[in-house]
Design brief:
Helix 8 packs across helix 9. It contains 13 helices and 6 strands. It has a single domain, classed as Deoxyhypusine Synthase, CATH 3.40.910.10. By secondary structure, the chain is an alpha/beta fold. It has a 6-stranded parallel sheet, with helices on both faces. The radius of gyration is 24 Å and the shape is elongated. Helices cover 47% and strands 10% of the residues.
Length: 313
């Protein structure tokens, strides 16, 4: 043996009774077998009170408290949520008080408009890109840029302008529009744009001045609504990896800087991957020690209908 170190001996090891130890998981936390005739609510109650099983129920309870107290329930959503067919579920949530504020990224208005206008959306990017046809649908570029231009002229936010345009149109499928429904129900809707990221920015009618003015107005509106999260509101980030988490963080900071207390609220992220910005800028940083944040990983087309059904919709 090249060294003189000797292994420790377990002789004299101190132990204690198992029942005297504090344990993190108990039988009372375990799942219960769900029956074939159980409701979704009973199914959710059958989930184990461990990790996401308990956190999902905690989020449901926070949303129910916010709804009863008439505190904001803000849904910030990436466009993928629309593309996977969830507008009917989201519209029902809007109509029943589970969405009191709607925030979209710039791509959200593209898919929401196309569904209302044509009943279809989401082009084949790879195929269209080869021929330079990607993002060149005429009505999408013309109608949305016209609405944004009017927003700048009238002093409206971008979300209000597009929602008003769809709601007042004769589009055959407008009942499936999130923004059109928000306008009809009087729900604040904001749109947060990164210039150059959306297909309508390639259109000759696109105006950086109008886009910036309308989207900045929406940012200040969202900040005012975020300020109302104080003591019981809920903020959900669904499917936005960068833009909306960054917008939310700045909205919280602006509200606090202006003397608005924004504490004691709940946040949650729903996405099919874990991302840095939603983790930091939605779940961890804004709620602080007085609030609570959650992160649920799963496909939107499963998780959001599950959430809606668990809420009783």
């Amino acid at each position: 043996m090249a060294h003189k170190e000797r292994p420790l001996s377990p002789e004299g090891l101190r132990t204690y009774p198992l029942r005297s130890r504090a344990s993190k998981v108990h039988l009372s936390d375990f799942a219960r077998v769900s029956g074939p005739d159980d409701s979704v609510a009973r199914f959710v109650q059958s989930l184990p009170r461990v990790l996401a099983g308990g956190e999902f129920r905690d989020l449901l309870a926070a949303m129910a408290r916010a709804r009863r107290a008439k505190k904001p329930i803000i849904w910030a959503m990436g466009a993928h949520v629309i593309k996977v067919g969830l507008n009917p579920v989201l519209i029902d949530l809007m109509a029943n008080g589970w969405i009191s504020v709607l925030a979209l990224n710039g791509a959200g208005i593209v898919h929401d408009f196309e569904l209302a206008y044509a009943g279809a959306t989401s082009e084949d990017v790879e195929g269209q890109l080869k021929t330079g046809r990607f993002g060149m649908a005429r009505e999408t570029g013309e109608r949305l840029n016209a609405a944004i231009g009017r927003a700048a002229e009238e002093g409206w936010g971008l979300g209000e302008a597009v929602g008003r345009m769809i709601a007042e149109s004769s589009f055959p499928f407008k009942k499936w529009s999130l923004l059109g429904t928000a306008h009809r129900l009087g729900i604040p809707a904001t749109v947060h744009v990164a210039v150059g990221t959306d297909v309508i920015h390639m259109h000759p009618r696109a105006s950086g001045e109008a886009i910036g003015a309308a989207s900045l107005r929406d940012f200040y509106l969202l900040a005012a609504l975020v300020a109302k999260l104080n003591r019981g509101g809920v903020f959900l980030n669904v499917g936005s990896a960068v833009i909306l988490p960054e917008v939310f963080l700045k909205a919280v900071s602006l509200a606090r800087n202006l003397g608005r207390p924004v504490e004691g609220f709940t946040t949650a992220v729903f996405d099919f991957h874990r991302h840095y910005r939603p983790s930091q800028n939605v779940v961890l940083r804004p709620p602080g020690t007085k609030g609570k944040g959650y992160y649920f990983v799963g496909h939107h087309e499963i998780m959001i209908p599950l959430l809606a059904a668990a809420l009783g919709r």
